[in-house]
Amino acid sequence: MKLVTAIVQPSRLESLKEALGKLGVLGMTVSQAQGYGRQKGHKEFYRGTEYEIDFLDKIRVEVLVDESGVDRVVDGIVEAGRTGRVGDGKVWVTTVDTVVRVRTGETDVEAL
Amino acid sequence: MDSGDTAWVLMSAALVMLMTPGLAFFYGGMVRSRGVLNMLMMSLGSMGVVGVLWVLYGYSAAFGSDLGGLGLLGSPLEFFGLGGLLGADQLSGTVPTPAFAAFQAMFAILTVALISGAIADRARFGPWLLFGGLWATLVYFPVAHWVFAFDETDAAGHVTAPGGWIANRLAAIDFAGGTAVHINAGAAALALVLVLGKRTGWPRDMGKPHSLPLVVLGAGLLWFGWFGFNAGSALAAGSTAAVAFVNTLVATSAAMLGWMLTERLRDGHATTLGAASGVIAGLVAITPACSSVTPLGAIVIGGIAGIVCAPAVGLKYRLGYDDSLDVVGVHLVGGLVGTLLVGLFASGAAPAGVNGLFYGGGLDQLWRQAVGAVAVFAYSFVLSLMIAWLVQKTIGFRSGVENELEGIDETEHAETAYHFGDGHASSRRSPVHTAGLGRELEGNNA
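YS: structure for the whole thing
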């Protein structure tokens, strides 16, 4: 069992959802996030006063997948999330010990 | 009485009234979300306090018989409560005097509200109301008399009742309040900032404007209402009003372009806040001039106002005063630009009918404009310093640092502006109500 976590641009959420759906991913958790990477944030001007905006709006997508599907899911996310500009985000994979479906008590692959 | 003129003045009064909530939104959008309600409330509070004082003695102090013929103050109790103005024979020019009094009331209210932009996020609300009442009484009402009370003359042109010194003896042109409203409010703002001090963390941490759409909504309402402010000041539905209307439109358009151009060249972007600010700068600058210049003159005055005010709002960082929403940079500087440029661009072809420097009139009108501007600035600045200092020393004007950090909406008004979702608050009747309920129940049992 793996947890794929992706931080992507908010504008890519719809295409990302579509791409994961085509790969047979049945569910996902999406939350709003803020952060910055190597390039930091951007500048805004209000009446000539410059503001450094460090934390930019991002979307955090979490998907639980069976080990056999991890590569396809990661590739799908990278492809759907890419705009080619700075700030497109990251994807990482972590190992999950156990998954339980709360309603039925099913575990692991049955619970996905 | 002329019913057309009366309709226009009443309508204009209503238009000017809308400027105060418009200003509230303009200012409210520029502060952080945790201080927007306090910003709105300072404008609403001005409507409360100044509206009442105007009827009690403000109108009388501004437009009552001149005390001693000095042109400094009207008799404050002559029209106390306005009860003596209710008859059909009470006229100001061609309109019923109460219509004129209502129109002028809106000016007094707006001028006090304008000041509040300088002290965002750090003034206690009660002391603000006290300041507003004292300031209107000691500063606005006299200055309105200086600028807006014209001599009454008989058919032969002899003065039968003298008015204010700036309008008559000095003969400076201030059609709708460049000195009385904008320089006056700007000077008071500067004084208030010096007494209250900077916001905690300023200028390192000042917070971004939380809603630029609100700012644009407010600027739009101000521009709309300003047609009543300027064209209504003709006090008649005629050619003067029409000229003032056109000039109010084009000066503002030009000022917006001027501000955006300055930003584009300096920062690389024309911004929404810049466009809205340019609108206000243009409206301010054309206010004293709108009946004394041609539409082309209005475009130049507006353009200059936009180009001058855009960098002027940065002065506070160089000089170290926290004029939060740039009342000095926009209203004081814009008011000075408009008032002084009358001396250059006034044209005999416009309804006010004097030639400024660029129309062969020499320096005569320019020095009159300068004296009027400096006099109002000096009087307002000194009196405002004294009033603010008095309020600070007696009941305390400045809110505490903790309150500032927590958010002045919550600490002053026990409210927050925006609620997303249901949150986790449980409701409880306030002690006042529960105490009352308890007594009722006890009463029923007995």
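YS: worth flagging: Chain A touches chain B through eight residues (CB under 8 Å).
IM: good catch. Also Residues 75 and 91 of chain A are 10 Å apart (CA to CA).
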